[in-house]
Amino acid sequence: MSENSSTPKRRDVIAGTAAVGVMGLLGGTLLARGAGNLIRPFTVLSHAILSSSLHRGVDAVITTNPLTPSKVLFLATGLAGSLLIGLSAQFPSANVADIQGGLFSTPDEASWILTVYTMATFAGIVLSGPFIRFLSIGRFLTVSAFIFMIAALGCAAAPDIRVMIALRTLQGFAAGGFGPAAFVAVFIVTGGPRLPFGLTMLAFVLLFPGSMGPVIAGFAEDSLGWQMLFLIQAGFGATLALAAWAWVPRQADLDWSALRTDWIAVMLLSVALTTTMLVLSQGTRRFWLEDDFIVWSTALSLGAWAGFLFLVRFSPAPIVSPRLIASRKLGIPIALNLVFRAGLVVTAYLVPQFLAVVQGYRPVELAVLFLWAAIPQLIVLPLVWWLMQLLDMRVVMGFGLGLCVIGTSLVVDGTALVATEQLRATLMIFATGQIMFLAPALVVGATSLKPADLPTASLAFNIATLGGTTLGVALVSHFVTEREKFHSNIITEYVSLYNGLDVDRLATLTAVFSNRLVDDSSAAARAASLLASIVRREAWVLAFNDGFLVVVVVLLIGAMGITAIGRSPPLRSVRAALGEVL
Question: How buried is 71 (Cβ within 10 angstroms: 0-12 exposed, 13-18 middle, 19+ buried)?
Fold first, then answer.
């Protein structure tokens, strides 16, 4: 029996709110000085982490870079920006049906609420590089957070779908720069021996919103309505704007020389990415190349990609370094991140859609389930750091992808009876594998970077992070839709009035409805309708099972790619390395 029928909604809201509060309290306590005995093991571990780490192959003299309070606040603001903006992005995705109803729009119109945000985010990522150099990172984050806040307030009061789409475009563009800014903050503050720690925290910040976002969104929308989702976003934006103004360094004057860049290449890359995301997001809904709009968007995307690649190849000062992207140490982790992000379709699409279509779950009921993914990621983070000290990075990455494969494999043979109770183990194992893969992948790909490599690495990593998830959802949603049609046709062939079992079942249902309805023809129609809905439900179950199986295959292919990275030795403490040098 599914949990949505047995658990009172009020108890779910109270339990979820309490869990969110406990996690927030725990996070704040861990950051405070002088933690009590209750969290002493975590405090000791955090001190060990802050001693930072090096690869075994280091042969240069180690110079420590003390962490001042101002640097810590700068890093915390950068990471918090990526975390809160990531959480905000999950809110409309988890509650788009309620937003659609509130704006009296169609599902096709409401889908643009998510599409334009993703498109604008890609444009923001590409343009963030020149703007950060021009404004300085402190001024850039302040302006972006303020714009994000204003757009969120406008979305909460939007009178119709057109205004909502326009404001979501502005909001997505402002949100695009927070990912690259977090990347910059990590390298500025933790550059050198502390960099692996900073990258591990960045990995957690990038993954945690996918698990925690639906939790916050489900409880907030169920208690206070969909407008509250955007008001929470506005609160995030205001907090980040104040923090960036107070704690993030900014230069006194604007750097006009930063605007001397290859703007044609920048615009071409922006157009290429945004139109690609447009095709991926709307392709399934519009039957791909059968729709003229998708055809023209695809042509524009291909033309923009061709122009951008030409400029990168022949420009004397390209905005990205193709040689760096093609390198073994960066290129393979970026490609694996793209594949891994595509695999996150399990939590971003398959599980929520399965429960919504098959079990009729509401967002608040999904919120209760996703707590089983959020809490393990909090708990396992210290374990991941410890394993990275002891084992080759490839081993930790392989173990993480292996857990993702195991978690997904648990539901490849699901039935219509699968509900929250059966999916808890899947989400717990999958969420644990996520952080175990991404943290060492970031360390492997980024610790060897030089300052001149950061623009290319930041751009490639953030594009792969957002693009991988969008690509995965687009392809898997299309695959599941087509497989549902296939299974529906097969099942329908075996449901016939010439089959004795089907006739008996239909007669039994008709008799049941005859006791409630006066007209026998209405009872027969009702019975036939119920039988048809059962056929559709079973077709969807089989289609989702096929989707889970495809993800398993993709993750296994990605696991084989880990071996191509090359030797990636474990980390060790700075204190031990200093002892050898001295």
Answer: middle
Query: Look-up: residue for tokens 């290319």?
Result: 456
Residue 132's closest CA among 255, 274, 268, 261? 255
**Alpha helices (runs of H) in 326-453, residue ranges in sequence order:** 328-343, 345, 351-354, 363-390, 393-409, 420-446
Mean pLDDT for 32-54 is 35
Residues 253 and 258: their CA atoms lie apart, in Å, by 12
Is residue 356's pLDDT more than 60? yes
Burial grade of 45 (CB within 10 A; 0-12, 13-18, 19 or more): middle
No. of H helices and E strands in the chain? 23, 2
505 band by pLDDT with thresholds 50, 70 and 90: low
Beta bridge partners of 572: 54
Confidence at residue 499, expressed as pLDDT on a 0 to 100 scale: 63
Measured distance CA(368)–CA(215) in Å, rounded: 7
pLDDT, tens only, 216-259: 999 998 888 899 999 999 999 999 999 999 999 888 888 888 88
For 493, counting Cβ atoms within 10 Å of its Cβ (0-12 exposed, 13-18 middle, 19+ buried), the class is exposed
Closest C-alpha among 199, 184, 206, 182 to residue 87: 206
Identify the bridge partners of residue 55 per DSSP, sorted by sequence position: 571
Question: What is the pLDDT averaged over residues 509-516?
Answer: 65
Burial of 410 (0-12, 13-18, 19+ CB in 10 A): middle
Measured CA to CA, the distance from residue 413 to residue 507 in angstroms comes to 31
Supply the DSSP symbol for 60.
Answer: S
The helix or strand, by DSSP H or E, that contains position 562, with its residue range, turns out to be none
Q: Which residues contact 429 (CB under 8 A, 6 or more apart)?
A: 403, 404, 406, 407, 410
Distance CA 216, CA 114 (A): 18
| For range 437-460, the mean pLDDT | 87
Mean of the per-residue pLDDT values of the chain: 83
Structure tokens given for 338:
């793209």
Cα–chain center distance at 458: 17
Report the C-alpha dihedral over residues 140, 162, 83, 189, rounded to 10 degrees: -10
CA distance 140 to 124: 12
Distance CA 53, CA 264 (A): 41
Gyration radius of the chain's alpha carbons: 25
Max mean pLDDT among 166-175, 488-497, 513-522, 573-582 falls in 166-175
- Those residues whose C-beta lies under 8 Å from the C-beta of residue 437, and which sit 6 or more positions away, are 340, 396, 397, 400, 401, 404
161-175 helix and 107-135 helix, angle to the nearest 10 degrees: 30
* Beta-carbon-side half-sphere exposure of residue 145 (alpha carbons within 13 Å): 28
Please count the CA atoms within 13 angstroms of the CA of 282 that sit on its side-chain side: 29
